[in-house]
Amino acid sequence: ETLNQLNASRQTVQALEGRVASVEARPAGDESGKLSVIILAVSELRDAVHRGRPYVTELEAVKAAAGNGPPIRAALISLDKNAAEGIGTLSSLREAFSKLASTIVAADRDAPDAGWMDRALGRISSLVKFRRIDGSSEAASTEFLVSRTEKHLATGDLAAAVSTIKQLDDAAKATASTWLSSAMARLSAEQSLASLHAHAVAMLSAVKG
Fold it and tell me: Which tens digit of pLDDT belongs to each residue from 182-198?
């Protein structure tokens, strides 16, 4: 599978190199051709990121095609960090949070300032994971926030899910910290890709008049 992915990446780069070479051979005034290559490279990068696989090759292709302009450079900087290992997909983040949810609730119950009832529930939940999932727990409680996060993830609203998790108290937030970092990396990547695509399309529209 790895060899197949490398092969596919190599073919992508070769195709992009061919397009870039053909564009460079055209008259200097043919800007729309160059911008079409940028849009293609950004599309390949977006596909790789969405699939959750490493995207070093696709990122380098965008850099080669798009140059080093400030808007492009700013968007690419945030994508550099995770290029070698890839970024978790929304589906994998949803699944990971579902497995973690009860542990987050239990961590809040075990916090030093928790009441005796919460500590008792925490000890029980260390043996059997349980929590309310109907959303009817006290507003702003850990159970409520965890339930809200799951609902946001179910509808694909990652930004709202991240915002909700950030409202957790210290112990619960610490338990969710690894997941939160992954979710924020996905959110940042999506924003960078949207910015790249919008910038390239705007440039193309300007050239075409």
Answer: 999 999 999 999 888 88
